[in-house]
Amino acid sequence: MIRLKPDYFSLPEIECDAYRLHLTSEDDFRVRQTLLNGLFGIAVNNPEELDAALETFDDSQYLLLNSTLLPFQGIGKDYFFLNEYLPKDITLLDFDTVGDYARDDHRFQEQARKQEDPDYPPRPYRGDIHRCWARLEIDGAFHYADISSLAGYLTDVLDEAGLERIDELIPCQYVNGPNHGKREGKGYVYDKRLDAGGLEGQLQALRDRYYAYMQERYEALLDRFNTSPTTRVYMRRQIRDTESHMDFVFSDATALEAVRFRHFVSDCRHIADDPAKVDALIEQEKRLALDFLANTYQDIMDNFDPTIVKLHRKHKVILANEKLKDLL
Question: 64 and 127, same structural domain?
Answer without folding.
Answer: no
